[in-house]
């Protein structure tokens, strides 16, 4: 009886140590449409001034993109520069930069990427959490990730965003950069017209690349007028 108890105790201790080792290793995982999803390879990069984190299990790939390369909470939305992307086993790309079709939408495009810790090792590593709802390019299919975790993912570079050639992602990020400059510029400033036109051009480019299902981007373009104060 004592031998059996000792064996059971040993098994528990070994299992506990194994879990701890796994947790302390680089990891990207979460619940994908209600099922456990675990990446077998992971890496991070700095792209367009923000983080690009990637995890893959050899048949599916998950990417998380943030506006800045600092710790913090990055909210995801259809017009946000913070983007979550998932490419499934059939090659379908789901992105929070895509709008849901009105006939399908049960959930809005939303989510969060939380960068909790950036450890200054060589290479640097990034730890945090995430969740999101994303849609296919036609807006008719959706995926959901929740309870997502990325742990000590190494910042090694060399990554490229999947998002349909990353053109929509880049256009969205450019709109947010030009919008920030526009919001910081008063109509009395001498460079107002130049900055306003840059913002207007970025919005038009985004409409061309990403579309504008609800017309919200075109409304902003119209409101800017000729950019003459």
Structure in words:
The protein has 229 residues and is α+β, with helices and mostly antiparallel strands. It folds into two domains: 26-163; 173-224. It is built from four helices and eleven strands. Strands 1, 2, 3, 4, 5, 6, 7, 8, 9, 10 and 11 form an eleven-stranded antiparallel β-sheet that branches. A hairpin with a 4-residue loop joins strand 4 and strand 5. Helix 2 packs antiparallel against helix 3 and helix 3 runs antiparallel to helix 4 (216-224). The protein is globular. The chain starts with a helix and ends in a 5-residue tail after the last helix.
Brief overview:
Helix content is 30%, strand content 34%. The protein is of the alpha+beta class and 229 residues long.
List keywords for this structure.
alpha+beta, about 30% helix, single chain, globular, 11-stranded antiparallel beta sheet, 2 domains, about 230 residues
Count of alpha and pi helical runs? 4
Q: What is the 3D form?
A: globular
Kindly, what is the distance between the CA atoms of the first and last residues, rounded to a whole number of angstroms? 88 Å
Mean pLDDT: 82
Specify the helix fraction band.
Answer: 25-40%
* Total strands: 11
Radius of gyration: 21 Å
Structural class call reads alpha+beta
| Main β sheet profile | 11 strands, antiparallel
Q: What is the chain-wise order of helices and strands? A: HEEEEEEEEEEEHHH
